[in-house]
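Quick question, first post here. What does this chain look like in 3D?
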Amino acid sequence: MIPRRGSRHTVDTGQWCRVVMDQATRELVARLAHTRRDALEISGVRWQHAGFKSYECKRQKDLDICGDLDLHPRYDIVIAEQVLEHVADPDKAVSNFRRLLRPGGFALVTTPFLIRYHPDPLDLWRWTEQGLRLLFSRHGFEPVTTGSWGNRECLIANLAEWTRYRPGIHSLHNEPDFPLVVWLLARLRQDQGG
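> Answer (accepted):
Ran it through. Tokens below.
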């Protein structure tokens, strides 16, 4: 089972704009029989205690996801949360996801959309659900599902700072015209890979 928000086994940022996305992505991964899968998380440790068969984390400084990787496919799932908006060449990054995955493997990606500019060190891109589907389809992936969440109140609150979620005060109602965050789960086609 994937640890729930607030569990002692998760890194919980408490960010209002992440609550729905985090729950949705945990549920997606739980449906993948994740305990039998080898996972690579790029630039984060939010999934380290999720119960994968094996788990590895590579920071962006240790793995140039846009570089020429000399790796053999060895993962069943690659997770990149809030990474693609910071890379210089998203097409190369997604192509490298393909190279890291075994045929039939999965990519789980989350990105901001209506989030303020946050260079760390760069902030270059934004995607809609359709945009993520197109990006991954061009590189041999079949999108399994996409999602997005946001509302005006959260959008306004996050203009000045990353607002912490306060149950009973902050709404999790989704307004589709105001997506703050977007996510995609895509499967590498069986004829693709490394």
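Residues 16-188 form a domain with the Rossmann fold fold (CATH 3.40.50.150).
DSSP finds four helices and six strands in the chain.
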